[in-house]
Amino acid sequence: MRLIFCCFSFLFRLSDAYQATGCYNLLCSRFVQTNSKIAIGAAISPVSSFACNQYDITVLIWKDPKLGNWWLGIGENTLVGYCPAELFTHLADHATMIEWGGEMVNTRWNGEHTKTQMGSGHFAESGFGQSGYFRNLQVVDSDNSLSTAENILTLAENTNCYSIKSSYSSEWGIHFYFGGPGKNPQCQ
């Protein structure tokens, strides 16, 4: 079972590497939404603007140590809902890998790469205000405490289409920028 919660306001779950299963948002019927004020799949506002105002949202995913449910929270103290413990085999005890980032579906319609941009459509190297970012990456440990993420690896499958750049600072901790235009003269 692969469970993805994403801060760009969608939830995705799959169990077979994109072959036949998978669902988005509340089509994932087993996700139990506990907050009627949060709309899974809706836009999160305010929205950052290119080279202008940038806005953050805190996203927290953790396993309830008593019942084993995997919870999604946003902001400082807003619980959104959970995936019940009985959905999981490999995540029954703990996660073995955590992924942050963006994802594009590229069906190569007409044999061409998708024109769908990621983030603002600018590559990671453009940096703050011009590309998407995740910052202060942390993990919830077995004591339900937050600790800094370690051993971060980055991957962009086609750097002519999308890119990622990781870094560290005392203010942002471990962070990375990501994005790209999709189809362009170098990305076919």
From TrEMBL:
Is this entry keyworded Zinc-finger?
Answer: no
Ranges of residues in domain Neprosin PEP catalytic = 1-188
Keyword annotations: Signal
Signal found in the keyword field? yes
Q: Which Pfam families match?
A: Neprosin (PF03080)
Signal peptide range in chain numbering: 1-17
* UniProt protein name: Neprosin PEP catalytic domain-containing protein
Q: Whose protein is this, by species?
A: Papaver somniferum
